[in-house]
């Protein structure tokens, strides 16, 4: 990880003005971004650039850059100066909700479609005979959190602080991040297949080489193709958002998930089914597919290495990605053990929905908090804005802070959103479950509890990582979406089993 001096130089190169070049009327008192919120908490009125401590450890006052007060210098006065970072957008609860609503619904319908696909393919021969594929499902669907959402958050922050304003910066950012994405997708897909083999072998004590190679080829090919397609879509979304004056943080991550679940699950089902047909007669095909994608790794590594920023991420971001994949695989094991029971076959259609909605909402919140912190400096610098201790639930959900306001908006979207998605599944006659009142109550309880936990963890985790000199854009979202998969799958399985125990044992729960 680069030194703080290098980080500061990068920050200043992107338009930040050194503190000693700016007038400050009152030195000697630290001013925080929260001090410039209006009476109703709407908007950030100023960006605070923090000066570092002097040799005696005493902080000088911050220089205040008033929102909208700066204008771009003309070319004749500052021909060599990079564009200044964009000032933070003023957002009310209504504007946040309005911007988030459409991509949230779009992402939700994507998860509904993914759930319907999973409900159909669970009866295919490949899923019946190679049940370990169910373990792969949350891990590969989690790629949108591990990789695509992280890419979207990274590019959103770069766009918001002016790091993609010139064509040279734009293409450098895009090529480096796409190469980084393909490296991560290939490696995570390979590791996910190993985890699926291990988690499937431990309970049963049975190992099949044919099935192991099939899992590897299917997982690596699915991860690579899905990440390539979704990464290109994300780039277009962020460019369009900035041109339309919309905050990319509110739009990019939900849209990353809107097609993410459906595309990934459709690819996994199609690829695994195609490879399974000739598994025994043409075993070498599966091995060649896996070897081909692994052989391409050095090319993507070489491209990513040309950009110092992406190379740093590539060298330092494996821990959250791999741990998140392992967490999602545990959720996949729960899914495998639950769906394999014919009494709980109805759970398949709802699993991508509850996991996708929770992951989408918490990714939006994590991306917003990260952007807010980047406005005040670099990771590790704003200790005042990033508490080390766990925040109280009241500060997370009930304060007038802009991030607390967005948390409330996102939480209030859970019930109406899920009602729309449940009605869509029912109207399309998807799944095996009748939507009775008691089922809806248990389902909504699980969904609300999942999002409540995730939003609280996000508030703590993003600030904690910031204090640890870690960029939350690269580290927080993989953990949060993986926890969303685990918590969502666990709570949903628990709800189905409780309904079964209290006597709801007909088509209301499963076959």
From TrEMBL:
<dbReference type="GO" id="GO:0008324">
    <property type="term" value="F:monoatomic cation transmembrane transporter activity"/>
</dbReference>
<keyword id="KW-1133">Transmembrane helix</keyword>
<dbReference type="InterPro" id="IPR045349">
    <property type="entry name" value="SLC41A1-3"/>
</dbReference>
<feature type="transmembrane region" description="Helical">
    <location>
        <begin position="208"/>
        <end position="239"/>
    </location>
</feature>
<feature type="region of interest" description="Disordered">
    <location>
        <begin position="1"/>
        <end position="90"/>
    </location>
</feature>
<feature type="compositionally biased region" description="Basic and acidic residues">
    <location>
        <begin position="1"/>
        <end position="11"/>
    </location>
</feature>
<keyword id="KW-0813">Transport</keyword>
<feature type="domain" description="SLC41A/MgtE integral membrane">
    <location>
        <begin position="351"/>
        <end position="494"/>
    </location>
</feature>
<feature type="transmembrane region" description="Helical">
    <location>
        <begin position="409"/>
        <end position="425"/>
    </location>
</feature>
<protein>
    <recommendedName>
        <fullName>Solute carrier family 41 member</fullName>
    </recommendedName>
</protein>
<dbReference type="GO" id="GO:0005886">
    <property type="term" value="C:plasma membrane"/>
</dbReference>
<keyword id="KW-0406">Ion transport</keyword>
<comment type="similarity">
    <text>Belongs to the SLC41A transporter family.</text>
</comment>
<feature type="transmembrane region" description="Helical">
    <location>
        <begin position="178"/>
        <end position="202"/>
    </location>
</feature>
<dbReference type="Pfam" id="PF01769">
    <property type="entry name" value="MgtE"/>
</dbReference>
<feature type="transmembrane region" description="Helical">
    <location>
        <begin position="283"/>
        <end position="303"/>
    </location>
</feature>
<dbReference type="GO" id="GO:0022890">
    <property type="term" value="F:inorganic cation transmembrane transporter activity"/>
</dbReference>
<dbReference type="GO" id="GO:0030001">
    <property type="term" value="P:metal ion transport"/>
</dbReference>
<keyword id="KW-0812">Transmembrane</keyword>
<feature type="transmembrane region" description="Helical">
    <location>
        <begin position="315"/>
        <end position="335"/>
    </location>
</feature>
<feature type="compositionally biased region" description="Polar residues">
    <location>
        <begin position="67"/>
        <end position="90"/>
    </location>
</feature>
<feature type="transmembrane region" description="Helical">
    <location>
        <begin position="130"/>
        <end position="147"/>
    </location>
</feature>
<feature type="domain" description="SLC41A/MgtE integral membrane">
    <location>
        <begin position="137"/>
        <end position="271"/>
    </location>
</feature>
<dbReference type="InterPro" id="IPR036739">
    <property type="entry name" value="SLC41_membr_dom_sf"/>
</dbReference>
<keyword id="KW-0460">Magnesium</keyword>
<comment type="function">
    <text>Acts as a magnesium transporter.</text>
</comment>
<feature type="transmembrane region" description="Helical">
    <location>
        <begin position="437"/>
        <end position="457"/>
    </location>
</feature>
<dbReference type="InterPro" id="IPR006667">
    <property type="entry name" value="SLC41_membr_dom"/>
</dbReference>
<feature type="transmembrane region" description="Helical">
    <location>
        <begin position="251"/>
        <end position="271"/>
    </location>
</feature>
<feature type="transmembrane region" description="Helical">
    <location>
        <begin position="477"/>
        <end position="500"/>
    </location>
</feature>
<feature type="transmembrane region" description="Helical">
    <location>
        <begin position="100"/>
        <end position="118"/>
    </location>
</feature>
<keyword id="KW-0472">Membrane</keyword>
